Amino acid sequence: MLEHVDDYTRECLAIEVDISLPGLRVAQMLQRLAELRGLPKSIIVDDGPEFAGRALDAWAYQVGVKLSFIRPGKPVENAYIESFNGKFRDECLNEHWLISLRQAKSLIEGWRVEYNTERPHSALGYLTPEQFAQAHRQQRFLTLDSMSVPY
């Protein structure tokens, strides 16, 4: 699984679920998100194998996005994503027996939508990520350099 979370709005923009996620798939996912939301200035990633290949580097270079890597073994450098992953595990993955890829995709997408639309965050003034992003888009305050990818 690959989660794409905006570290400013706390929106979970996508969760890519599959048996394997090579760098090309990561680049394609990011391109789809860029077409919907625009390009960020930078993306934070860890040292996972899906980020180590040339496909992601080539995509980032081509579109002018800086890739920022956290240091190996230093998840605290991306603490928000670690917290998000813990909630995702506790509230979604550990609550269900996932018996097929299709079922996993459906359950995970349902959790993602609920997370964005029904879960207020104290860091966002007790707004949901969707409400916060919408309010800031209306004020044209939301910048596109706030997106990060956990892994």
How does this model look, in words?
The protein has a three-stranded antiparallel β-sheet with strand order 2-1-5. It starts with a strand and ends with a strand. The protein has 151 residues and is α+β, with helices and mostly antiparallel strands. The chain has one domain (2-148): Nucleotidyltransferase, domain 5, CATH 3.30.420.10. The chain has helices spanning 23-37, 49-52, 54-63, 79-91, 101-118, 129-138, and strands at residues 2-6, 12-16, 42-45, 66-69, 147-148. Helix 1 (23-37) runs parallel beside helix 3.
Q: Estimate what percentage of residues fall within beta strands.
A: 5-15%
Domain count: 1
The helix content, as a percent range, equals 40-55%
Q: Which structural category do the helix and sheet elements fall into?
A: alpha+beta
Unreliable parts: 142-148
Essential attributes:
single chain; 151 residues; alpha+beta; Nucleotidyltransferase, domain 5; three-stranded antiparallel sheet; two-stranded parallel sheet; 5 strands; globular; nucleic acid binding; Mobile element protein; Integrase_cat-core; RNaseH-like_sf; RNaseH_sf
Write the layout of secondary structure elements.
Elements: E1 2-6, E2 12-16, H1 23-37, E3 42-45, H2 49-52, H3 54-63, E4 66-69, H4 79-91, H5 101-118, H6 129-138, E5 147-148
Parallel strand pairs: 3-4
Antiparallel strand pairs: 1-2, 1-5
